[in-house]
Sequence to fold (288 residues):
Amino acid sequence: MKVSNMSEDKLNKKVKNYVSFSEIKQWKDCGWRHKLLYVDKIGTFEDSPHLHYGTIIHDAVENLLKNGTVDLNIVKEKIEKTWDDFGFDSNDFIILQENKATLQGWKYKHNSSSEWIDWSNACLERLPNFLEENFPGYSLFNAEEQLFEDIEFNHKKFKGFIDCILKVPTSKGDKYWIIDWKTSSGRGWSRSKQQDISFTSQLVLYKHFWSKKHNIPLNKINCGFVLLKKVKKSEKTCQLIKVPTGPKTMERSLKLMSSMLKTVEQQRYLKNRNSCMFCEFYNTMHCL
Fold:
């Protein structure tokens, strides 16, 4: 059946004209999962304590950078209210998570709201000194800065939100640090994860497009993840993972984005059976 011109116009307006790093990462992890999420638009959003904890911590860190203080009581109240609203400590939730974990081939370990509160206190108490130790004399350039920049080799734009940009004085002039806050387990990230292009390309691409946006030379921009670990000893909560962003690394990250765009445009969606664990589509009608 032929679609009318008016319908075609409406459809064209709905075509997404940008790509985000999260989409690139989904494609890198598994092309089929990317199709289910971004092409078929099969919704999989589920409230989880990890998601809400990350949001609460990000908000607290942003408040620290902008106002110089964090009210730990407010953070505690947010966690308590969220856990109560969504029943994250309820037996029903725990049983549901245990069943899902069994289906996906891993074991669920429950942590109570009091543990999440202890973790938040430890990392937020440590963070001010940690920042001064690693970025002496820093000032906040921006937080939650949006990118929506043209991709040179494609008709789409690159969209993203940078958690934090710090301006740090040095003997050779000001340097800028693009920072992404990551909550993590107490073990932090393995060396292989720290070097995995699926993770590091996020900041490499942020650097590329942020440099273009502000017309700041690439050699004046550094990048790093700051892990905010879930541990109770504050001295072990924060870790800076510096991300190499030299020409070769930049070329690899841009090539990754280019490959993703070309593959999706060609409608080629390959399954990666090594990425099934923790995937919400695993052993469902969508991916057998």
